[in-house]
Design a protein that fits this description.
By secondary structure, the chain is α+β, with helices and mostly antiparallel strands. It has two helices and four strands, in the order ββααββ. Strands 1-3-4-2 form a four-stranded mixed β-sheet.
Amino acid sequence: MLYATTDFIQGQEIDAYLGIVFGDAVSGINVVKDLLGGLRDIFGGRSATYERELGAARDAAMAGLTEQARQLGADAIIGIDIDVQAMGANNGMLMVTATGTAVKLRASAPQATGSPWTQ
């Protein structure tokens, strides 16, 4: 599967647009993680705890996006957009949504392998 945030893939011809695909992930930040993240707010610096949670949620959203595209027979996903939003009581939940357009490439296009979002 090839991925692009643009509406094309350089050097490739799009044969068919298969539809919009999306993946969602909602991650809760528990009390301990929230406390550790809050300490970073007081003392400054990056919060590895929140970064790990955000990365895991982003990977889950991209995996869902990829699976939907694969079910449509796509070779690539173009126009990918990833949105992040805090939600819930005291913003204790993190929602990541990935959207894009699944496309079929011309038969002569090489296929990428080893995507970090495929299982």
